[in-house]
Structure formats: C-alpha cells, structure tokens
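Worked example 2:
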Amino acid sequence: MVFRNIILVPFMWCKLCYYASHVDKYTEEQHYKMLKFIVLRANKGGNVTIDIHGQENIPKENGFMFFPNHQGLYDVLAIVEACPVPFSVVAKKEIKDIQFLKQVIACMRGYLLDREDVRQAMKVISDVTNEVKNGRNYLIFAEGTRSKNGNEIQDFKGGSFKAATRARCPIVPVALIDSFKPFDTNTISPVTVQVHFLKPVYYEEYKNMKTHEIAEIVKKQIQKTIYENIKA
C-alpha cells in the first residue's frame, strides 16, 4: 500500500493528522470524504478489492447502527469504502496506541471504550444512544474483540446492542469475509474482501426481545451469509 502510493503517502498522512487534530473545523461529510479518498488509494495500492453486496439494505434515513463480525484491524476501512454515507464507530481503547487507526477514529468522531471501566462504558452507551437518536450512524463490533480464526465468528455480546435498543434504531448486520487478510497476514498477493450489508432489523421487529436474543439473531444471519459466500 505504502510503496505504490509513495508520492501520495506524505500528503495523505499530513492531511489525515491535520483533520484528526482539528475535528471541529470540518463537517462529518468532509471528514468522511477525506477518509474515503485515503482508503480508496490505499486499497488500490495494496491490491485490495472490496466486493460490495447489499448497499440497498442501508437505511435511507440516518440514525442506524451497523453490527459487523470482527476479523481484524482492517474491518472499519473496508466498510468505509463500501458505505456511501458517513458513520462513526465504537472501538476498544487499545486503538489509541495504533497510528493511522487512531487518527481515523478521531476523524470519525468515534468513541474508545474501556471495557474494564463500567461507568465509562455506560457513558459511551448513553452518548451513542443520543447521537443515533439525533441522526448519526454508528458501528459496533458485538464480538468485543477480533476473531483469531479468520472467517469463523465468535459469540455476539448482548450488551453491545443496548445503544440500538435504547435509540430504537434500525440494526444493520454486516458480514465481512476475508477482511483479516490485508493487515493481519503477510501476503502481498491480491486480496478480495467481501462486505455484505444484510437486511436491517427494525425496532418493531425486536422491541419485545432481550438483547442477547437480538445478538443471536444478528450473529446467525452473518454466519449464514459467510458460509454461503466463502471461497475455499
């Protein structure tokens, strides 16, 4: 990615850092446009192709939440290229120590969650709930941590859906396939990452469910999509 964009890398890095340090200077749309430009160039240079399915399932009105499976550090970037509308993200606090990703999260005005601090976690849930109600879109990894087994997914945690249920917003399952390969393997071969936006689950459909029941439904939909589309 870096070698094939060697001329653009210094410019893109400086621009990303400036935007991340001056978050309030730009609109969410301007931040997202800048991030898409960087991601598209990086993917082209890194021989990464994003195979997009189900864009028509993304709600037309803002104020929804994505719940993808979590394969690796590249996941958010894959969805940035695939999704035409801005969204933010809730990520674990360890991201603050990873250069590039921490700037991306800052530009997205995302939250870093400390899973060991219950009070801080509840504050994040409350803040995300209010922002979704006011029309922002969010992404949360319900597994909590990335899978170590490629396209095999882990259990989805019911607590990850609290902000969605409180905001009464559409829940959009997202199935990622081979998203672990660009950053978490040493391959230099061309990689195709599949991003499948599944049909949203609306509040009327889940309002009488417990969060762990919602989590199980979303997990099963994603798992089914992965098994149907995975390439051996």
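The longest helix spans residues 211-229. The chain has one domain: 47-229.
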